[in-house]
Design a protein that fits this description.
InterPro entries: Alpha/beta_knot_MTases (IPR029028), SpoU_MeTrfase (IPR001537), TrmH (IPR033671), tRNA_m1G_MTases_N (IPR029026). This protein is an alpha/beta fold. Helices cover about 40% and strands about 10% of the residues. α1 packs antiparallel against α2. The longest helix is centred in the middle third of the chain and has 13 residues.
């Protein structure tokens, strides 16, 4: 579950050459500034400053990955870091196209946390400090 201070992508495969994980957005910007113009770095900094962990959308009862992807696009546009979903059907029931849609677009920039039940989701979010 994504907590208020967590940089969720540090848990993914974003590793430095020496194998250390990238720990925060500031490190991403620092590394990118080596090869980007000052104007582009300023745009990165503005986008990072506008992102928030204060709000976390939780989706429950959605069967269509296309609908989940639409919420992910909106969440990313609003600057949210993560979206939580309570899975209501086995992944095997989703078409290959629906499964791949979750990996496209805004979902690349969001952490998607999947929960087996509403109770687990609420407990995880409360553990991370959400109300």
């Amino acid at each position: 579950a994504a907590g208020a201070g967590r940089f969720p992508h540090a848990m993914d495969c974003f590793l430095l050459d020496r194998g250390d994980p990238i720990k925060d957005p500031e490190e991403v910007i620092r590394l990118a500034s080596r090869v980007l113009s000052e104007e582009r770095v300023a745009r990165f900094e503005a986008a990072a400053a506008a992102r928030t962990n204060a709000v976390v959308p939780v989706l429950e009862g959605l069967y269509d990955e296309g609908n989940i992807a639409a919420v992910c696009r909106s969440a990313e546009a609003l600057g949210f870091h993560s979206v939580h979903t309570v899975d209501v059907c086995p992944k095997s029931k989703l078409s290959a196209r629906a499964q791949s849609s979750a990996a496209s677009g805004a979902a690349k920039w969001l952490h998607r946390e999947r929960w087996a039940s509403t109770a687990e989701c609420i407990a995880g979010l409360r553990e991370d400090g959400y109300r």
